[in-house]
Prior knowledge:
Number of domains: 1
Number of helices: 3
Shape: elongated
Largest sheet: none
Helix content: 25-40%
Strand content: under 5%
Structural class: mainly alpha
Radius of gyration: 19 Å
Order of helices and strands: HHH
Amino acid sequence: xxxxxxxxxxxxxxxxxxxxxxxxxxxxxxxxxxxxxxxxxxxxxxx
Length: 47
């Protein structure tokens, strides 16, 4: 059974424990944010 939680009643501690969130300080975690990505073509931008 899925339990629904009201976001307004959650604390940061609840989020960390219920969803097993962890702080990640590794620069490699989201490589796509720091890699050189290709630029969008004009056709892609105007769509």
